[in-house]
């Protein structure tokens, strides 16, 4: 079965949300930041935890492309890998640095999965939790290398939350 998502690559990968600060937003370990999007990546639902951490109101989020929270430190290759994976009907797991409305940032260990109805993908759901410090530090180092143009994986994946250097669909 082939899944297709239509998006503008320039909008998806190159949105440069500025300004940014160097202030990290910490959130409770038990928090689960959940969103759903349509097949184009536009937010259709955001839970209370996501709204609180992102700093956006629910009204500001719903209907916007999910890259509204893209932090400019995130390499395009990580998102390219995520979209290729979920478009193929598989789940994706990886570390993501997001930007808050005010420019602050927060790290998440993200799990994105296609949601099926009658055998067809109808939306995507992302559940994010607080990453452990070791996984976060590894992601920061790897993403810094990718942004400098060294050691990239072409379409390589995002560092998995505490399990290795590459996110992959569950086997």
Strand order of the largest sheet: 2-1-5-4-3
Largest sheet: 5 strands, antiparallel
Span between N and C termini? Answer: 18 Å
Number of strands: 5
**Structural class label:** alpha+beta
Helical fraction: 25-40%
Strand content: 15-25%
Low-pLDDT runs of 5+ residues are 1-13, 152-157, 160-171
Q: Helical stretch count?
A: 5
Q: Give the overall shape, derived from the CA principal axes.
A: globular
Mean pLDDT score: 81
Order of helices and strands: HEEHHHEEEH
What value does the Rg take, in angstroms?
15 Å
Could you write a compact summary of the structure shown?
With 171 residues, this protein is α+β, with helices and mostly antiparallel strands. It is 26% helix and 23% strand. A 5-stranded antiparallel sheet has the order 2-1-5-4-3.
Task: Give an overview in words.
It contains 5 helices and 5 strands. The protein has 171 residues and is an alpha+beta fold. A 5-stranded antiparallel beta sheet has the order 2-1-5-4-3. 33% of the residues are buried.
């Amino acid at each position: 079965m082939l899944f297709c998502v239509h998006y503008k690559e320039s909008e998806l990968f190159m949105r440069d949300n500025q300004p940014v600060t160097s202030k990290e937003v910490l959130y409770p370990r038990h928090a689960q930041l959940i969103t759903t999007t349509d097949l184009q990546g536009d937010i259709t639902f955001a839970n209370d935890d996501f709204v609180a951490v992102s700093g956006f109101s629910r009204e500001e989020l719903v209907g916007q492309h999910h890259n509204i929270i893209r932090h400019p430190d995130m390499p395009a290759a990580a998102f390219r890998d995520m979209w290729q994976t979920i478009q193929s009907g598989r789940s994706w797991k990886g570390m993501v640095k997001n930007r808050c409305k005010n420019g602050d940032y927060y790290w998440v260990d993200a799990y994105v999965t296609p949601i099926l109805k009658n055998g067809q993908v109808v939306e995507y759901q992302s559940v994010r939790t607080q990453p452990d410090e070791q996984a976060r530090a590894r992601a920061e180092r790897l993403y810094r290398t990718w942004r400098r143009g060294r050691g990239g994986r072409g379409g390589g994946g995002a560092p998995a939350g505490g399990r290795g250097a590459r996110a992959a669909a569950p086997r």
